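Please review this pair:
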Amino acid sequence: MKKYILPTVAILGLLFISSCAPEAGTEKEYGFWYGLLHGFILPFAIIGKIFKMDIGIYALTNTGTFYWIGYFFGFAIISGGGRRGMKRRRKKDC
C-alpha cells in the first residue's frame, strides 16, 4: 500500500500543476507574474502535450517583454538557474 502513495501523489500533483497552464483563445492579457508561473510549469505542460492534452505552452495574449522576462525567470528557477555551471572547481595540488 505504501509503495503506491508516492506515484499517486506525483501523478495528481502533475495534473494539478499542468491545469494552471495557459489556455488558447482567452481575452485576458497575461503579464510578468503569469509569465513567471507559466515558465515554472513549462516542464509539466510539455509532458501534458506529449500525452496529447489540450495544454498551452505559453499565453497567446501576453503583454510582451515583461511576460517573456517572467517566463524566462520561471523556467530558469525550475531548471536550476545555471547553478551547476557557476560552480568553480578547485584544482588539486599534486
